């Protein structure tokens, strides 16, 4: 398959890239600071550019995979209205835009795989913006699946990954981590499988 991978330079994106490429897929990577295409998908115009340039490189895409989304972490009392707006733009609207524009740009039976996270179902202090964004993306996935068939859309919703415990473990006390390889396997399931409207929780 020809796959557009967003967020390919982060830990998760790199693991997903390695896993999908190892399974014989052709990957076009997108990132703000690196990748085949250096673009910011929080800007709808740059989403358009990503699809245009990917088509020039590879023709029709079979799948779009997102491993990127930014949200601020602060207590609610310290959050400004713009903090929530930034979290919504950075993780929700950016990924919705990938699907909205992508339905006309990928194969008729192609797929989208978005990223959410554990905070939509198991919140932590300072994580209200992330919980909001994750829940919104998951609701969108379930609804969009009804509209875009036979194209498919799913989300991967991991907890904290083992490889990032040094950086984020303090935010998730007592939470069992998951290895990056398990998260990447959930992406494989979404891309290569037949389900739609699912939220995969790697364990």
From TrEMBL:
GO terms for molecular function: oxidoreductase activity. InterPro entries: NAD(P)-bd_dom_sf, SDR_DHRS6-like, SDR_fam. Keywords: Oxidoreductase. PANTHER family: DIHYDROANTICAPSIN 7-DEHYDROGENASE. The keyword ATP-binding does not apply. Belongs to the short-chain dehydrogenases/reductases (SDR) family. This is Short-chain dehydrogenase. The lineage of its organism: Bacteria, Bacillati, Actinomycetota, Actinomycetes, Kitasatosporales. The keyword GTP-binding does not apply.
